[in-house]
């Protein structure tokens, strides 16, 4: 697998945050509402940062197959 289990969990969390932020913005449906102006953009940006972090993060656990050939 390309990513580890933690990476996939973080990707799912980030995707959930992005979807939740856009959904909250849609449900409030006001231009000058508190949720639309302040809370939803912060949640959406946190989701994007989480997704980027999950993609860029390396797992610290090394596979035994890659270390067997090294002396």
Notes on the protein architecture:
The protein is mainly alpha-helical and 71 residues long. The chain has a domain at 20-57. Helix content is 73%, strand content 0%. The longest helix has 24 residues, at 5-28. It starts with a helix and ends with a helix.
Largest sheet: none
SSE string, helix = H, strand = E?
A: HHH
Unreliably modeled segments:
none
Query: How many strand units?
Result: 0
- Measured between the Cα atoms of the first and last residue, the distance is 25 Å
- The pLDDT mean sits at 88
Form type: elongated
What is the helix tally? 3
What is the rounded Rg? 18 Å
Strand content: under 5%
Helicity range: over 70%
Class by helix and strand content? mainly alpha
Topology of this protein?
Elements (H helix, E strand, L loop, with lengths): L4 H24 L5 H23 L7 H5 L3
Helix pairs in contact: 1-2
List keywords for this structure.
mainly alpha, 0% strand
Short overview:
The protein is mostly helical and 71 residues long. The chain has three helices and no strands.
